[in-house]
Amino acid sequence: MLEDLSLRIFKVLDRELSKEGILLVEQLPSLIQRLEEGIQQDATEREGLSAEAQKSDRLGQRAYPFLELLKSSFKHKDPIVWGH
Prior knowledge:
The chain is mainly alpha-helical. The chain has one domain. The chain is 62% helix and 7% strand. The protein contains 4 helices and 2 strands. The protein has a two-stranded antiparallel sheet.
């Protein structure tokens, strides 16, 4: 489930998910914008769904911690590094 979420988030970011990687500070503003736009698009697409379907697997709810990580890293001018 978490891998599916990670793949979905990285697809929104137009990046390939790998076992090792880095998101540079200079990249963070555009990545934040892409993720926020993806969350908004997901919310808009869900408007026509049934109430039950709207509850399941919302990108905004699931991606919020990652979005906050991006914002915090940008604020502190720290890159995001994983798998190192």
